[in-house]
Amino acid sequence: MKRRWSATAFFLIVLGLASWHLDVGHNANTMSRAAMVAALVEHGSLRIDPYHQLTDDKALVDGHYFSEKAPLPALVVVPFWYLADRLGLVEAGENGLLTDGLLRLGGFLCGSLPFALLALLLFHRLKASPLPWPRAWLALLPLLGSFLFVYSGSFHGHLLAALFLVLAWLLRRKEVHVISGALASAAVLCEYSLFVFPLAWLLQDIAARRWKPLAAQVFGGLPGLLFLGLMNLLVTASPITLPYSAVAAHVDRSGGTLGLGGPRLDGLFGLLFSSYRGLFTHAPVAIICALVALMAMRRQGWRWTWMHPLVLPSIALVLMIAGHSMWWGGWAFGPRHLTSVAALLILSALPRLPQRPWADGALAWLCSWGLIVALAAKVTTVYSLPTEVLHPFREMILPQFMHRAFTESQWPVLVGFSPTMGTFLFALALIFALRALRRLPNDAPVLLP
Predict the structure, then answer these.
(1) Up-side HSE of residue 313: CA atoms within 13 Å toward CB?
(2) Whether 352 contacts 270, CB under 8 Å
(3) Which of 321, 347, 297 is nearest to 146 (CA)?
């Protein structure tokens, strides 16, 4: 019984850490999704006209404003916010039902919960890891020391999309293609750019003449595709025209259609290696995971690489984002548009680390550096880093940490504690959580894909 409850204890501890900071910052990205939720619950409409002045991330169609975000994260929150409103648990503010409480709910459902589930999936996949680490630490620390943790608790769609895509990949490996296709389409409904993954899988099935899996994947993904067409129709009057094509403000059209163009070297370097938005600087454990992937590619050959469900679509996504006119993602911490790539890389490669002293040492150093950067950002700026700040840790995060300019977006502040005391309590909670996780048995079963 103790072993059976270990996975539940791991999940609840991680969920507690991930939901300690629930973002209430009025970022254009999160406010756009919150405006869609408020409009549907308060007015029964997709039009966000009553709230459009609160966000620049909006589409203008025939004189009306709409959220231009992929719709699923907002739609996930709608029934919960509707029920809370009908039960009298919501008090309208100056912007109606678009309140800080809505932002917290969205941050929990679309940020904290997916982060904890991703950690639980990694916990499951590490059941046979040869490294001399507590299994729970090995599952948590790489994610905690990455930009993924910074977005846990925020009403973005990246972590929810990553969760759906990871589940789709795991089920594809188990030949459960209908559900895999449905989850892949759900990921696209959270983040449009992830279409490269189901598209690559379709092409791989065609190349391998795997007709039954191909048909099953199409069957599973078709409802999501039709739903996307319906949402587009309701907003733009065309099932194939995304709301993003009618963005009302701060649009850079220099990149071609929807801001897309050919990959740029500055974008590629910035997304992978820079201190500005680099994947390997904001999720350091991805470095050793990438080395494991490269060694596997060299050992298995080109055909294995071509047919692998993650390698080519991940590369394609990186190149596509590197060619976008706003590849840096606006006000962001790390390469937020590569959240799914980071999650897939860590969950696929970390369980395959070799039992070598260099692997153990590198993992310890990379986790330590990632924790310093990510935790410092989490308790200060979160992701609110202006585009023009080219070295976020040195220029903003570390100075704010040294001056104890801690974020107010944390639960203790709601009940009267100062941000400094809230951060101190979070540090204590983290220490006690790590002590508790260390005691969990390494062979605890997890009923997951």
Answers:
(1) 24
(2) no
(3) 347
Check if the beta carbon of residue 113 is closer than 8 Å to that of residue 73. no
Give per-residue pLDDT as tens, 56-71.
Answer: 999 999 999 999 999 9
Q: How far is the C-alpha of 33 from the C-alpha of 160, rounded, in Å?
A: 13
CA torsion 415-417-420-426 (nearest 10°) is -50
Angle at 383 between CA 380 and CA 386, to 5 degrees: 100
CA dist 427 and 144 (Å) reads 13
d(CA 9, CA 11): 5
- pTM for the whole thing? 0.95
Cα gap 344→166, rounded to integer Å: 6
pLDDT tens by residue, 353-403: 887 888 889 999 999 999 999 999 999 999 999 999 999 999 999 999 999
Distance in angstroms (rounded) separating the CA atoms of residues 431 and 205: 47
Contacts of 321 (CB under 8 A, 6+ apart): 193, 267, 271, 327, 335, 337, 338
- Counting every residue written for the chain, the total comes to 449
224-238, pLDDT tens digit by residue? Answer: 999 999 999 999 999
Structural domain boundaries in the chain: 2-12+26-405
Structure tokens at 175: 């030949």
Angle at 307 between CA 305 and CA 311, to 5 degrees: 50
